[in-house]
Amino acid sequence: MKKILILTLCLISCNQKKEKDAKEIVSHTLSVNKTKDYIEDYKAKYKTKKYNLRVEKDCDLNMDGQMDKIIIFEPSEIANNKLTKESPVCVFIKKEKGYDIYENKNIIYTSFFNSMAEGLQDLVVKDNYFTFEENNQAGEVRDNDYITFKYDLKSKEIVLHKYSIELISVDGENDKTFTYGKEVFGKIFFNDFDIDKIKEKINN
Question: What is the distance between the alpha carbons of residues 127 and 67, in angstroms, rounded to a whole number?
Fold first, then answer.
């Protein structure tokens, strides 16, 4: 009788453990689905505002082993001959539950519809740094801009790292590169960055 009781208790304990493990697996799955849907909902929000997805890049900006994401949106209707800042950049930093979201539409210029050589050319991510590569001028001298931000691992904020301008002439003899950093701008947070104000400051 005692052996039967012990066997029964063991079976109950094993069943409870299996149920607990199953709940944990289900809970984890729901958590993953929820975070995935969260970003999809964010994309849908911009779609209703007549924006297209221009760039979507996975990365690990805070170097914690969890997948972060950078998304660039662009208006579905792009001006033919007007340079505008209407391309929101959204950075999603993965947390235990959900994301920290950083958003700014004053970083890059929206591409001209009739000139793919102008506007955003690439988004490059390396470790906790990400750079927007942009061409803002056509003609005899090409103006390539590089805007680099970094995720500060100590303060856990995204800040401007440097802004570089590369002037490339047709003959290649008058090429110049200018780089400006914290010593010129001070500390600028991602959400506060405005490319027009940056250019105004270095031109004065």
Answer: 12
pTM for this predicted structure? 0.77
Q: Which residue in this structure is represented by tokens 């008058």?
A: 174
Which of 8-17, 109-118, 179-188: highest mean pLDDT?
Answer: 179-188
Residue closest to 184 by CA, chosen among 203, 167, 168: 203
Q: Which residues contact 188 (CB under 8 A, 6 or more apart)?
A: 159, 160
CA gap 47, 43 in Å, rounded:
6
Alpha carbon 146 to chain centroid distance?
Answer: 15
Residue type for position 129: Y
Task: State the amino acid at position 140 in one-letter form.
Answer: E
Main-chain phi, psi angles of 105, to 5 degrees: -110, 15
